[in-house]
Structure formats: C-alpha cells, structure tokens
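1st attempt posting a full record on here, be nice pls
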Amino acid sequence: MNCMNGKRHGSWLVLALVMAIGLSACSGAQTVTLSGQDREAVLAYSEPMTDNLLAGMNEADYARFARHFDEPMQKAMTEAAFQGILSSIGAKLGAYQAREVALVEDTGAFIRVTYTASFANEDGVTVRVVFNDGTPDHLVSGLWFDSPVLRQK
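the predicted structure (as tokens):
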C-alpha cells in the first residue's frame, strides 16, 4: 500500500461525514438486532460487497473498493479520499486479513454490519459497513474503522 501521510486527517473526516449523514437519516428509528433468517438474508448480500471493499483496499484498487457504493458514498469517497485511507489505514494496520461478523442491525432505512477484523499489524479492529436498505441492491452508504492503533496520533 502507498503511504501518503499528508491526507491522513482528511480521509477520516470524509468517513466521519459519510457516517454522520447516514446515521442521522435513521436517528428516529429504533435499531433492531437481526438474527436467524433475517440476519442470514442480510449476510447473503453484505458479505460479497464487504469482500470486494476490503480486497479493493488490499489491492489499492479504487474501482473494486467502491464497486457497491451508493451515490452519496461515491461522491464522498473519491479516489483521492481512498488514497488517504490507504495511507492512514495501511500505514497503521497493514493489510486486511480476516473478519468475523459481530452484529447485524436494522435501523429502519439502513442495515449496519459490524465486524471484528484482523489486519497484519492489529487484531480486533472494528469495521462497520452500512448498507442503504432503501435501494433494491442494498448499496454501501457508510464505512467506519476503529481500533486503539487508529486512535493514536
């Protein structure tokens, strides 16, 4: 992965902005944790999309990374912002290796899938992918990474 230190803060701001927009749209709805068949139905579409997103990060391939983004996410997560994410996450966490589904939630207009992921330099990274439940193909409308290493300045 390329390491471009100058764009580190801007990329996190874009991610935070995308998430704030997505989460504010569903703030009045009650969040429901999905299980059983409902959970499996979400994972049937979310897992392949998340695979592409994370593989695109590992390959530094913006087209693959952004393949399943909805329109607002495409506008917010430009190729330049993607390069900033690669430099900040790549430099701190290293390459993505594996993940486990921790939680699947329905917020009304959005579906949130939270993962516990392993990267080359850190295990236990929280990765949250938000899917737009209002689009027929449930496109990605938010992405968030959190870990102690990422919170270090």
